[in-house]
C-alpha cells in the first residue's frame, strides 16, 4: 500500500491524534469482562421472520449500531464492509456491483435491487441513500426474484428501518469535519394513542465543500453538497391481527459534480484538481409515499404494499473538462413510479413454510439531453419519453424433509413491456424513432441445506437471473441503436455456516459460479461520431469466486470482524470495435468488477465508557472498460475512531483513509484519446456527538 507523506500540519496532527488515542486505550483481561456470545439475529430477508443462521444463501447483515460505530453515512460507505459487493460511484450514474455483475455505464437501472422497508428504489441515481434511523441492512447475493416484488438479477440490499411503537425513543447526532463538512440527524418516535397509534419522524442534513479544487476558477468547493432528507411514519394497530403503516419521505440535494480531471495530455492536472471552464452542478428531488397493511390469520400473514416514488435530476457539466469554453451537456431525468405488491406467507413452526406474491408496477421515465456546443455541427439534442410496465407472480416454499435436511424451491413468472420514443436532433435536423419491448420470463430456483452438526450447516443453490432490456436514453442516433434486449444468468452456489467456541466465533463461507448470456454491453457505432454508442447483447461471460465473513468475540468487550470476496470475471465471447478497429474482447475481465474486496476491523468497549475502533477496507484491481486498457490497481483505506459513551451521550473523533490512499473510481477516454479520471476520497476527519433517549 502506498503511504503518502503529508505536507499539511493539520493532516499530520489529525493522523497523530487518531493513532495516539486508539493506542492509548487500555485493555483489560477477559476475567474482568462479561462473557458475551454472538446471538443469532432475526432477519426478514426471506419476507418472514427467520434466523440468520437458517438462511440458505450468501447474506451479510449490519445493524444500526455497526453503522453508527463506523461512521457510515450512506450505502456507498456500507458496501465497503460487504464481501463481493462494490459501489460504482460516478457522475455518470451510481450502481451496485455484486459478484462482478455490473451494469452498462450510463444505464439508469442496476442489476442489484435496493429495497427500503419493502419498497423498491429502481433507478441507479436513487441507490446511494442516506442511512438514518436504520435497524439493520441485509445484503443478499444472487438472484432474489422468488422473494422480492421487483426482479433483481445479482442480489438485493434490504434496508429495514426502525418503526414507531409504544416506547418513546429519540436520537440526535451532529458531526463536523474537514472540508467544512457538517452532518446532523434527529429522530423521535412513540405512541400517540397507547397500544393503537404511533408516530415516527426523522430528518437528516449534510453539507460539505468537498475536496475538489478548480485550477481555472480558483474555487475549492466545486464538489460541494447540500442534502436534506426527512421521513414521517404513522403506524396504526387497532387489534392484534391488523396493522397499517403509512410513510412519507423526501430528499432534496444540490451538489457540485466537477470531479472528472484529465490524467494526461496538455490539460492534465493533479489529484483532486480539475481544469473546467463551467460550474458543473446537479439538483435532485425525490418524494415517496407508502401504505403497507398486514393482516394475520392463525398460520399466515397477508401483506399489501402500495407505493409511489417520484424522482427528478437536473444537471449540467462541462463538455470537455478543459479551460476552453466549448459547451455544456445538460441532462434532465424525470421518473414517476407506482407499484403494488400482495403477498401471503406462512407463520409459525411447521414442516412446510411458504410465500406467494403478486407484483405490478408502471413507470413513466422521461429524459432530455442537450449537447450545447460552440460548433453547431457538434450540437445534439435528445428527448425521450418512455413507459415501463411489469407484472409478476412469485413464490418460494421450504420443506423440512428430516430434522437436518431442508429443501427449497421457488419460481418467478414475469411479463415486462416498455414503449419508448426518442427525437434526436443534430445538424442534419430532427429524426424520431420508436421501440416496443415485450418479454415474458420464468425464473426458477432450488436449494437444499443440511445441518451437519448443531453448529455447522451446509447448503447448495441454483437460480436463474434476468435483467430486462431497455432503452439507450443518452447516446442513440437511430432506431437500431435505441433499444436492447435482456441478459440472463444461471447462478450456482454452495456454502457453509458455522459457529465455534460457544458462539464466540461465527463464519460464513460460500463458493459461486455464474454463467452470463446475452451480456448487455456498450459498443461503438461505426461512423457515429462523438457521443454515439449502442447497447448490444453481444457478450457471453462468467464469474466465479468465494466469499468469507467472520465475526468473533475473543474477549467479552472486544469484537473482531473480517470479510473477503474474490470474484474472477472473464468475457468468453464478444467481438466488437475499439477506435474503429475490430477487437476481440474474449479473455478480458468485465468492467467495474474488482478482483477482490476485503475488510477487517476490531472494536473494544471498556466498562467505563471509553471505546476504540479500527478498520481497513480494500478492493483489488479493476478495469473501467471492456478492452481492459483503463484500470485501477486497488487500494486499502484505514480508518480509526475513539470515543467515550457517558449515559445518553457519546462523543467521538474519527479519521477515514488516514494514509490518504490514492485511487480512482472511474476512468474514461475522451475524443482525443486522453484519459479522464475521477478520484476517490482523501483523508477526512471529524468530531461526532450523539445523544439517545
UniProtKB/TrEMBL annotation:
Subcellular location: Cell outer membrane
Natural source organism: Desulfoluna spongiiphila
Pfam families: Plug, TonB_dep_Rec_b-barrel
Domain TonB-dependent receptor plug, first and last residues per copy: 53-156
Compositionally biased spans, kind Basic and acidic residues: 261-279
GO biological process: iron ion transport
Residue span(s) of domain TonB-dependent receptor-like beta-barrel: 294-658
Protein name as it appears in the record: Iron complex outermembrane recepter protein
SUPFAM superfamilies found in the cross-reference section: Porins
Amino acid at each position: 500500500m502506498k503511504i503518502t507523506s503529508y505536507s499539511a500540519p493539520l493532516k499530520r496532527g489529525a493522523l497523530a491524534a487518531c493513532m495516539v488515542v486508539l493506542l492509548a486505550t487500555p485493555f483489560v483481561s477477559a476475567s474482568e469482562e462479561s462473557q458475551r456470545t454472538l446471538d443469532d439475529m432475526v432477519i426478514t430477508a426471506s419476507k418472514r421472520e427467520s434466523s440468520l443462521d437458517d438462511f440458505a444463501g450468501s447474506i451479510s447483515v449490519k445493524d444500526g449500531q455497526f453503522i453508527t460505530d463506523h461512521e457510515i453515512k450512506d450505502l456507498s460507505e456500507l458496501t465497503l464492509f460487504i464481501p463481493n459487493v462494490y459501489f460504482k460511484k460516478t457522475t455518470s450514474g451510481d450502481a451496485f456491483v455484486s459478484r462482478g455483475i455490473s451494469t452498462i455505464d450510463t444505464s439508469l437501472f442496476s442489476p442489484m435491487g435496493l429495497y427500503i422497508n419493502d419498497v423498491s428504489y429502481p433507478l441507479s441515481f436513487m441507490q446511494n441513500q442516506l442511512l438514518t434511523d436504520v435497524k439493520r441492512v441485509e445484503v443478499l447475493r444472487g438472484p432474489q426474484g422468488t422473494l422480492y416484488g421487483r426482479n433483481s438479477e445479482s442480489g438485493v440490499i434490504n434496508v429495514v428501518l426502525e418503526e414507531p411503537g409504544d416506547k418513546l425513543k429519540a436520537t440526535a447526532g451532529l458531526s463536523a469535519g474537514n472540508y467544512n463538512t457538517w452532518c446532523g440527524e434527529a429522530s423521535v418516535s412513540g405512541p400517540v394513542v397507547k397500544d393503537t397509534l404511533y408516530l415516527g419522524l426523522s430528518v437528516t442534513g449534510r453539507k460539505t465543500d468537498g475536496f475538489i479544487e478548480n485550477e481555472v476558477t480558483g474555487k475549492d468547493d466545486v464538489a460541494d453538497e447540500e442534502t436534506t432528507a426527512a421521513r414521517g411514519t404513522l403506524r396504526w394497530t387497532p387489534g392484534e391481527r391488523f396493522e397499517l403503516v403509512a410513510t412519507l419521505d423526501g430528499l432534496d440535494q444540490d451538489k457540485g459534480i466537477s470531479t472528472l480531471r484529465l490524467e494526461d495530455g496538455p490539460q492534465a492536472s493533479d489529484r483532486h484538481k480539475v481544469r473546467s471552464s463551467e460550474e458543473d452542478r446537479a439538483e435532485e428531488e425525490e418524494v415517496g409515499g407508502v401504505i403497507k397493511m398486514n393482516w394475520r390469520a392463525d398460520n399466515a400473514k397477508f401483506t399489501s404494499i402500495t407505493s409511489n416514488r417520484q424522482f427528478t435530476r437536473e444537471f449540467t457539466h462541462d463538455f470537455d473538462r478543459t479551460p476552453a469554453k466549448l459547451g455544456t451537456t445538460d441532462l434532465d431525468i424525470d421518473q414517476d413510479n407506482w407499484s403494488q405488491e400482495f403477498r401471503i406467507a406462512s407463520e409459525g413452526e411447521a414442516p412446510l413454510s411458504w410465500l406467494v406474491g403478486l407484483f405490478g408496477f408502471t413507470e413513466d421515465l422521461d429524459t432530455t439531453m442537450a449537447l450545447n456546443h460552440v460548433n453547431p455541427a457538434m450540437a445534439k439534442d435528445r428527448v425521450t419519453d418512455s413507459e415501463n410496465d411489469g407484472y409478476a407472480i412469485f413464490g418460494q416454499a421450504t420443506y423440512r424433509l428430516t430434522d437436518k435436511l431442508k429443501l427449497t424451491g421457488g419460481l418467478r413468472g414475469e411479463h415486462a413491456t416498455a414503449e419508448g420514443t426518442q427525437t434526436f436532433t443534430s445538424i442534419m435536423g430532427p429524426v424520431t424513432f420508436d421501440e416496443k419491448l415485450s418479454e415474458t420470463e420464468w425464473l426458477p430456483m432450488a436449494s437444499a441445506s443440511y445441518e451437519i452438526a448443531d453448529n455447522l450447516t451446509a447448503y447448495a443453490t441454483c437460480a436463474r437471473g434476468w435483467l430486462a432490456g431497455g432503452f439507450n436514453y443518452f447516446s442513440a442516433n437511430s432506431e437500431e441503436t435505441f433499444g436492447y434486449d435482456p441478459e440472463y444468468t444461471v447462478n450456482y452456489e454452495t456454502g457453509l455456516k458455522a459457529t465455534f467456541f460457544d458462539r464466540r466465533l461465527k463464519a460464513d463461507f460460500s463458493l459461486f459460479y455464474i454463467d452470463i448470456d446475452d451480456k448487455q454491453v456498450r459498443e461503438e457505432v461505426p461512423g457515429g461520431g462523438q457521443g454515439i454508442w449502442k447497447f448490444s447483447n453481444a457478450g457471453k461471460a462468467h464469474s466465479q469466486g468465494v466469499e468469507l465473513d467472520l465475526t468473533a468475540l475473543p474477549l467479552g468487550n472486544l469484537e473482531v470482524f473480517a470479510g473477503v470476496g474474490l470474484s474472477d470475471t472473464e468475457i468468453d465471447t464478444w467481438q466488437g470495435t475499439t477506435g474503429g478497429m475490430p477487437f476481440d474482447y474474449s479473455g478480458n475481465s468485465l468492467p467495474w468488477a474488482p478482483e477482490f474486496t476485503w475488510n477487517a476491523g476490531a472494536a473494544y468497549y471498556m466498562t467505563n465508557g471509553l471505546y476504540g475502533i479500527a478498520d481497513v477496507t480494500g478492493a483489488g484491481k479493476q478495469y473501467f472498460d471492456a478492452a481492459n486498457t483503463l484500470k485501477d490497481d486497488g487500494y486499502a483505506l484505514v480508518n480509526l475512531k475513539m470515543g467515550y459513551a457517558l449515559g445518553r451521550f457519546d462523543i467521538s473523533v474519527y479519521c477515514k483513509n488516514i494514509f490518504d490512499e490514492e485511487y480512482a473510481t472511474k476512468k474514461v477516454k475522451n475524443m482525443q484519446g486522453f484519459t479522464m479520471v475521477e478520484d476517490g476520497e482523501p483523508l477526512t476527519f471529524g468530531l461526532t456527538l450523539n445523544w439517545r433517549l
